[in-house]
Amino acid sequence: MNVTDTLITLAKQMPKTELHLHIEGTFEPEQMFAIAQRNKVELTYQTVEALKAAYQFNNLQDFLDLYYQGMSVLLHEVDFYDLTMAYLEKVNDENVVHVEIFFDPQGHTERGVPFDTQIKGIYRALQDAEKKWGMTTRLIMSFLRHLSEESAFETLAAAKPYLDWIDGIGLDSSELGHPPEKFLRVFQACKDLGLKVTAHAGEEGPPEYVWQAIEQIHVDRIDHGNRALEDEKLVETIRQKNLTLTVCPLSNLKLCVVNDMTHHPIKRMLALGLNATVNSDDPAYFGGYMNDNYSALIKGTGINKAELYQLAQNGITGSWMNKEQQQNHLKTLEDLFH
Ligand code: HPA
Ligand SMILES: [Zn+2]
């Protein structure tokens, strides 16, 4: 076997964590059509093939328009359960041992689907995965940044009875024009409740948005963070604070954040001492789950064995699983690599 194939095999075998995954972005067209039919909802696209053909994006907004359209067929608790379970089954087969899943409550409450319906379906699937496979899971409620801070506060109020099920808060959707500082007060309220905090920053938005996420929102993690590399002082700050970046290679390619996988900055991030991790973001839309993301990086950027090991380690140490579980997975990883 050549070096590339050996590394791809190793990437498949190693215990992996997924820290940046939107559950609504795992909606495979086949399942979307099946649930649409079950719920008697009309989709804009008539066939699975026509829908798949539309997955050509020039930027984040192009994708989001389809993403919100797709999730509109989710109406009942069982729909959220089925969606989540289908994803968990897939990644369990890929040796993913721990997942931290975002969901976008406002994408559903805005259409009249109650918060309770969504979270009950998602959480039941997470619990079943823990029972069935020993996978560990965390749930991250994300605010849509194109909506108001008031709407985020309403979402937090709806979540209050379920705080035991929610581990962290995220910030996603259209980044440009919606800086983190717009959500300063609501994130402070989340912190006061003891929730972890993360935010998408520096995917399309400027380094200034990453600064705001760190200095105003006081994030525990940064989702994407690609454009932080444009600012040396920011890189130094991220390193000093030991913040993890949840990087999404195939997403970056599909949304034209990078124009070619050979130009992906993940090797540079590692060389700069940043805690970069590999994640799939919205795998049904971007052409692949965890193993596909690792394969694409290995083929495109030529990451070596030491870098692959570092990425997997960062995924474990940057996760919100408990320390004992981290130690166990780090040991398994070490045994596999040495
Ligand atoms: O990649 C993303 N960026 C911002 N918002 C999102 N919502 C789902 N995926 C994304
Ligand atoms: Zn994302």
Automatic annotation (TrEMBL):
<feature type="binding site">
    <location>
        <position position="20"/>
    </location>
    <ligand>
        <name>Zn(2+)</name>
    </ligand>
</feature>
<dbReference type="GO" id="GO:0006146">
    <property type="term" value="P:adenine catabolic process"/>
</dbReference>
<dbReference type="GO" id="GO:0000034">
    <property type="term" value="F:adenine deaminase activity"/>
</dbReference>
<dbReference type="InterPro" id="IPR006330">
    <property type="entry name" value="Ado/ade_deaminase"/>
</dbReference>
<dbReference type="GO" id="GO:0005829">
    <property type="term" value="C:cytosol"/>
</dbReference>
<feature type="site" description="Important for catalytic activity">
    <location>
        <position position="224"/>
    </location>
</feature>
<feature type="domain" description="Adenosine deaminase">
    <location>
        <begin position="15"/>
        <end position="331"/>
    </location>
</feature>
<dbReference type="InterPro" id="IPR001365">
    <property type="entry name" value="A_deaminase_dom"/>
</dbReference>
<feature type="binding site">
    <location>
        <position position="281"/>
    </location>
    <ligand>
        <name>Zn(2+)</name>
    </ligand>
</feature>
<dbReference type="Pfam" id="PF00962">
    <property type="entry name" value="A_deaminase"/>
</dbReference>
<dbReference type="InterPro" id="IPR028892">
    <property type="entry name" value="ADE"/>
</dbReference>
<keyword id="KW-0378">Hydrolase</keyword>
<dbReference type="GO" id="GO:0043103">
    <property type="term" value="P:hypoxanthine salvage"/>
</dbReference>
<dbReference type="InterPro" id="IPR032466">
    <property type="entry name" value="Metal_Hydrolase"/>
</dbReference>
<keyword id="KW-0479">Metal-binding</keyword>
<feature type="binding site">
    <location>
        <position position="282"/>
    </location>
    <ligand>
        <name>substrate</name>
    </ligand>
</feature>
<feature type="binding site">
    <location>
        <position position="22"/>
    </location>
    <ligand>
        <name>Zn(2+)</name>
    </ligand>
</feature>
<dbReference type="GO" id="GO:0009117">
    <property type="term" value="P:nucleotide metabolic process"/>
</dbReference>
<protein>
    <recommendedName>
        <fullName>Adenine deaminase</fullName>
        <ecNumber>3.5.4.2</ecNumber>
    </recommendedName>
</protein>
<comment type="function">
    <text>Catalyzes the hydrolytic deamination of adenine to hypoxanthine. Plays an important role in the purine salvage pathway and in nitrogen catabolism.</text>
</comment>
<keyword id="KW-0546">Nucleotide metabolism</keyword>
<keyword id="KW-0862">Zinc</keyword>
<feature type="binding site">
    <location>
        <position position="200"/>
    </location>
    <ligand>
        <name>Zn(2+)</name>
    </ligand>
</feature>
<comment type="similarity">
    <text>Belongs to the metallo-dependent hydrolases superfamily. Adenosine and AMP deaminases family. Adenine deaminase type 2 subfamily.</text>
</comment>
<feature type="active site" description="Proton donor">
    <location>
        <position position="203"/>
    </location>
</feature>
<dbReference type="GO" id="GO:0008270">
    <property type="term" value="F:zinc ion binding"/>
</dbReference>
